[in-house]
């Protein structure tokens, strides 16, 4: 497979995943902020930090409206939901022949849907429906890729991009949780990570922060946990290189193996001693380093004299 095509598949998957995760985070925060007025400002600042976008300095703003303007529709940032959708479509256009009609129509439809909207057109009352449509389409994208594309090298790069970005976003959410945050904050975090119902089935109605943290970090069979996503990336990298499990053929596999081992052998007590914020920050650094290693291994920039 051409490196250019592999890179386009990788970044298309990452940007669709990021758009979905941010849309869910904004929607959940807007809903929960109504129930907890006292810490609404702190929660919105956390959303900006997760998105990597500087919050407005003016404190006399409507947090929900401003978040929709900057995090969802922001035109000055390549990190907003709308920008991620544009980047994903640009990558899809560049390797249209490698995609099925269903996958292309999904990406293009998401782009046309987002481009047809604006903060004023959506308004505060229609924001939830708009964000949910982005989430649903982004999730459909993943299903269509799995159901209609051949599971060859190209599909592995899609899986790497999606899993890496998902793990990175979950880690960034965990990084924003303080030691004094109560059960309602953890409930918001579980919802933002699409984990509320799976957690309830696995752990009952527990409100223990330690169990919430362990579920999001260490669960082996939950698709959005750090451990599951890291294993997906590691498996895909080994299938691409042909290296046996437990060994590594390049820097990317070495890094992915180290992350997997750190999560496979971690316990709830270890996470609580480190603290959610410090653990999340460490995992953010690890996943960023893994992303850089993948780019260096498979998408090197070769200077032409």
Q: How many separate domains? A: 2
Helix content: over 70%
Shape: globular
Please give the count of helices.
Answer: 14
- Unreliably modeled segments: none
Radius of gyration: 19 Å
Q: Give the strand content.
A: under 5%
Average of pLDDT: 91
Question: How does this model look, in words?
Answer:
The model has no long low-confidence stretch (mean pLDDT 91). The protein has 305 residues and is mostly helical. It folds into two domains: 149 residues, no CATH class; 135 residues, no CATH class. The protein contains 14 helices and no strands.
In short:
With 305 residues, the protein is an all-alpha fold.
Walk me through the topology:
Elements: H1 3-35, H2 40-51, H3 63-72, H4 81-94, H5 101-115, H6 119-148, H7 153-175, H8 183-192, H9 196-203, H10 209-218, H11 226-241, H12 251-264, H13 268-274, H14 276-298
Helix pairs in contact: 1-2, 1-3, 1-4, 1-6, 1-7, 2-3, 2-7, 3-6, 4-5, 5-6, 7-11, 7-14, 8-10, 10-13, 11-12, 12-14
């Amino acid at each position: 497979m051409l490196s250019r095509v592999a890179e386009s598949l990788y970044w298309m998957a990452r940007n669709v995943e990021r758009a979905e995760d941010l849309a869910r985070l904004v929607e959940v925060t807007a809903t929960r902020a109504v129930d907890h007025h006292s810490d609404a400002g702190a929660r919105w600042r956390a959303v900006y930090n997760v998105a990597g976008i500087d919050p407005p300095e003016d404190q006399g703003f409507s947090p929900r409206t401003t978040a929709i303007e900057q995090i969802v529709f922001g035109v000055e940032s390549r990190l907003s939901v709308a920008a991620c959708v544009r980047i994903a479509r640009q990558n899809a256009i560049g390797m249209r022949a490698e995609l099925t009609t269903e996958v292309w129509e999904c990406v293009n439809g998401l782009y046309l849907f987002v481009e047809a909207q604006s903060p004023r057109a959506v308004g505060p009352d229609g924001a939830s429906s708009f964000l949910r449509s982005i989430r649903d389409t982004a999730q459909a994208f993943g299903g269509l890729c799995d159901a209609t594309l051949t599971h060859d090298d190209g599909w592995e790069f899609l899986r790497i991009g999606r899993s890496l970005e998902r793990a990175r976003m979950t880690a960034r959410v965990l990084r924003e949780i303080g030691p004094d945050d109560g059960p309602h904050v953890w409930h918001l975090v579980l919802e933002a990570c699409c984990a509320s119902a799976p957690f309830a089935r696995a752990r009952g109605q527990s409100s223990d922060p330690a169990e919430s943290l362990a579920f999001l970090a260490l669960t082996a069979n939950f698709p959005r946990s750090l451990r599951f996503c890291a294993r997906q990336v590691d498996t895909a990298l080994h299938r691409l290189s042909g290296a046996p499990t437990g060994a590594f053929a390049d820097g990317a596999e070495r890094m992915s193996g180290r992350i997997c081992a750190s999560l496979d052998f971690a316990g709830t007590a270890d996470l609580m001693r480190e603290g959610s914020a410090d653990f999340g920050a460490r995992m953010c650094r690890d996943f960023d380093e893994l992303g850089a290693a993948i780019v260096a291994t498979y998408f090197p920039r070769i200077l032409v004299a």
